[in-house]
Amino acid sequence: MAALSWDRGTLLVRTDFSRPQRWDTLLRALHTPSDEGFTAAFETVDDPEWRDATAEQLIADAPDWALFIVADAVALSSPELPALVISIEDGTARQLRVTPAVMWAVENNLSIANMDWEDFASAADSDGIYRGRT
């Protein structure tokens, strides 16, 4: 696999290529502004070279500080499209599923260090998905 360009800020990495319509639906949802006008800021990596890449493979490719979103089989097969958000700080990776409607809150606040990972992780529902209640 080719190395990802981590100098572009938050990345949205597509790893599931078996559901093209669901991928399109996820992209539309992520680009739809919140009621307040916010959207997540990310660069899209839509390269079949990353097909079926695991979170561990993506983490291994990342620097010690990174924030990225993964459109994997779990996300694209679920009606809610809960993408996997991975935050790496000081080489420690943490993972959380986030619905598209609130991705902006997670991405915007983590990328500028306005809120901490735990603010979102502790507000996730019992199924491990953050749906916007902090």
Automatic annotation (TrEMBL):
Residues of the DUF6924 domain: 10-132
UniProt-listed InterPro entries: DUF6924
Protein name: DUF6924 domain-containing protein
Origin species: Kineococcus rhizosphaerae
